[in-house]
């Protein structure tokens, strides 16, 4: 099914200056000349970009192959993460409005960076969740994927810098804030426990506790988004 560019809303993750400064240890700095297209819709994704300076226009093609401007983004924006982490084709194009300074990352180098920044991990999950909703090129069981992504986000938000950590989830709070029923949440947690994403899962009244394992969680998040 063709995509209506007029209904497409660019979902862009924006980072603060402290995080972008930290990321410079991991990314390759690039200078992109104004009027240059550095992400092209439809191409396979290999790298993502964090904008350090300058402005970028985001374009999307409609069913008549007409390109429309859908957003202009700037300093602190992450571009291209959906394609890289989900191994999908680019869903939009990015063109430098001004000269742009950016950090370029492979999936491996960016994953290495976000292991040390829990806040960034959470933002990437939220960004992927929103972009999955917009992408009609990815055929998914939407309800199950959203539950998995939402619970993963909640568990990930409790991580410090360790690759293993204890988490606590209040069922009533999750039901109220996410709008999912208890049965579906319980099924999702049991799935995560059975495949080793979490362990030592236990429940007392409306509270679930357990331990989460970061590498397995990141893989689970990717699988939940792409359902390969």
Describe this structure in a few short sentences.
With 228 residues, the protein is α+β, with helices and mostly antiparallel strands.
Q: In the CATH classification, which architecture of the largest domain applies?
A: Sandwich
Net shape: elongated
Number of helices: 8
Summarize the helix and strand pattern as letters. Answer: EHEEEEEEHEEHHHEHHEEH
Radius of gyration: 18 Å
Write a structural description.
- By secondary structure, this protein is α+β, with helices and mostly antiparallel strands.
- Helix content is 38%, strand content 29%.
- Strands 1-7-4-9-2 form a 5-stranded antiparallel β-sheet.
- The longest helix has 17 residues, at 118-134.
- It is elongated, with a radius of gyration of 18 Å.
- The two termini are 20 Å apart.
- The relative contact order is 0.15.
What topology does this entry show?
Layout: E1 13-14, H1 17-23, E2 28-32, E3 37-39, E4 47-53, E5 56-61, E6 67-73, E7 77-79, H2 81-86, E8 93-96, E9 100-106, H3 107-114, H4 118-134, H5 142-156, E10 164-170, H6 171-178, H7 182-194, E11 198-204, E12 207-213, H8 214-226
Main attributes of the structure:
38% helix; single chain; Jelly Rolls; Arc Repressor Mutant, subunit A
